Amino acid sequence: MPTLRTIAFNKPYGVLPCFTDPSGRKTLADYIDLPGVYAAGRLDLDSEGLLLLTSDGRLASHITDPQHKLAKIYFVQIERIPSEEALEQLRTGVVLSGKKTRPAEVRLLANHPQLPDRSVPIRFRKNVPTAWVEMTLREGMNRQVRRMTASVGHPALRLVRVAVGPVVLEGLQPGEWRELTSGEIEQIYSAVRR
């Protein structure tokens, strides 16, 4: 029986979360040479950060199935400083494509998070201030974070996933990956459902 492999990868901006692209764009294959592992969840081309890949179908399902409510934490740079009302809308859930999102944990960060520079800089606009928020979601609708912040009037400029359940991005530079420990995998399975 083949050994199951699970890795944490720091996906750079501009990399597709798959192994092939007929258009020739950068993919996971440019960084990872492990047969049989596939992304457990999505992280769009224009998003960065923690992506888990595994050859274990049961684990992949546990990570991606919203019934397990595994927390995914994002740092999001948004246009303009959000009001408490806008943050509260995100916390209680917003309607996207006719469906209300689950409540999110959202907090305005006092300082810019310590992140590596992005390969393509954020467009600077002198008259439009930006802010960073931390958002914790327990579901994964398509482009959910970006759609949520835009729906309350604060389009996302940069989005970096920093944690999936107990697994954190810390220590991985863009394009780097590491094997998950057996303890981390056990923690994913035993993560508290809320």
Q: What would you call the structural class?
A: alpha+beta
- Average pLDDT, rounded to a whole number, is 92
Strand-residue proportion = 25-35%
> Would you identify the regions where 5 or more consecutive residues have pLDDT less than 50?
none
CATH topology group of the largest domain: Alpha-Beta Plaits
Q: Identify the overall geometry.
A: globular
CATH homologous superfamily heading of the largest domain: Alpha-L RNA-binding motif
- Total number of strands: 11
Report the end-to-end length measured between terminal Cα atoms: 35 Å
**Helix-residue proportion:** 10-25%
CATH C-level category of the largest domain? Alpha Beta
Q: What count of helical segments does DSSP give?
A: 4
Domains, number: 2
- The rounded Rg comes to 17 Å
Largest sheet: 9 strands, mixed
CATH architecture of the largest domain: 2-Layer Sandwich
Helix-strand sequence: EEEHEHEEEEHEEEH
What can you see in these coordinates?
This protein has 4 helices and 11 strands, in the order βββαβαββββαβββα. It folds into 2 domains: 6-66 and 168-190, Pseudouridine synthase I, catalytic domain, N-terminal subdomain (Alpha-Beta Plaits, 2-Layer Sandwich); 68-163, 2-Layer Sandwich (Alpha-Beta Plaits). Strand 9 and strand 10 form a beta hairpin. The chain has helices spanning 57-64, 84-92, 144-151, 182-190; strands at 6-11, 38-39, 48-54, 72-79, 95-96, 99-100, 105-108, 130-137, 156-164, 167-168, 177-179. The longest helix is centred in the middle third of the chain and has 9 residues, at 84-92. The relative contact order is 0.23. It is an alpha+beta fold and 194 residues long. The strands form 2 sheets. Strands 1, 2, 3, 4, 7, 8, 9, 10 and 11 form a 9-stranded mixed sheet that branches. It has a two-stranded antiparallel sheet with strand order 5-6. The model has no long low-confidence stretch (mean pLDDT 92).
